[in-house]
Design brief:
By secondary structure, this protein is an all-alpha fold. Helix content is about 65%, strand content about 0%. The protein is built from eight helices and two strands; from the N terminus they run ααβααβαααα.
């Protein structure tokens, strides 16, 4: 290495085993709670007794904002939240570290819980980690778009992020599951907004790790074509 020449930043070549193990641990914890504590007794009283968030009583029992994140309706609920968490938690962990991702996850779950409780009549029990997972999604959107802007990546790189977001957004605003169970859209959107704000805060304060952007040949060709056209 020549003196005075800074080392070139590394791209993400290593497989992210660490983040995947963390996501797997959270997934297995949620699944264990469903199988051992929730079981087949899936009614209002059961979810409430296990720590579900009760609308109209958030300030009286604020601890339920956290405990409700560990309760799910059934294994399918855990599975789909786990898949979504795997997709977005891994890149967010790589960007802001384990602690940063945990803060975003919990903060998004809390904000989502508050938003969900405010959007329904008093006495409704709200539970699940969808708001927290939505926050990871929101943070990924903010960080990815800000990184693309800073590095002057071609328009296609930004359109990919927008395209992925538009594909996922309908699942966040769907008020019912396939079997007719109610979904808190407000909790999803609250978590999403919290995550986007958290991603922006992390970026502005220099808490996002630098990653050398990868530009494929097609993007470079498109960029050149745009220069000629305009």
């Amino acid at each position: 290495m020549q003196a005075g020449v800074p080392p070139k930043p590394n791209r993400r070549h290593a497989f992210p085993w660490g983040p995947i193990r963390v996501v797997a641990a959270v997934f297995l914890t949620h699944m264990a709670i469903v199988l051992t504590l929730v079981g087949q007794n899936r009614d209002f009283m059961r979810y409430r007794d296990l720590g579900g968030l009760i609308s109209g009583h958030v300030t009286e029992q604020p601890w339920r904002l956290l405990t409700s994140l560990f309760i799910h309706a059934d294994p399918a609920h855990v599975f789909w939240n786990g898949v979504s968490m795997l997709v977005f938690a891994v890149p967010v962990i790589l960007d802001v570290g384990y602690l940063g991702a945990a803060i975003i996850y919990i903060a998004g779950g809390v904000v989502g819980g508050i938003a969900g409780a405010a959007a329904v009549p008093e006495g409704v029990v709200i539970f699940g980690s969808s708001g927290a997972v939505s926050a990871l999604f929101g943070a990924w959107i903010s960080i990815t778009l800000l990184r693309a802007r800073q590095h002057g990546l071609p328009r296609r790189a930004r359109l990919r992020v927008i395209g992925v977001s538009l594909l996922i957004l309908p699942t966040l605003v769907n008020p019912e599951t396939s079997d007719g169970q109610s979904i808190s859209v407000a909790a999803h959107l609250g978590g999403l907004g919290a995550g986007m704000v958290a991603g922006l805060i992390a970026w502005v304060n220099g808490l996002v790790r630098y990653v050398e952007p990868e530009v494929d040949e097609d993007d470079e060709d498109d960029d050149e074509e745009e220069k000629w056209v305009h």
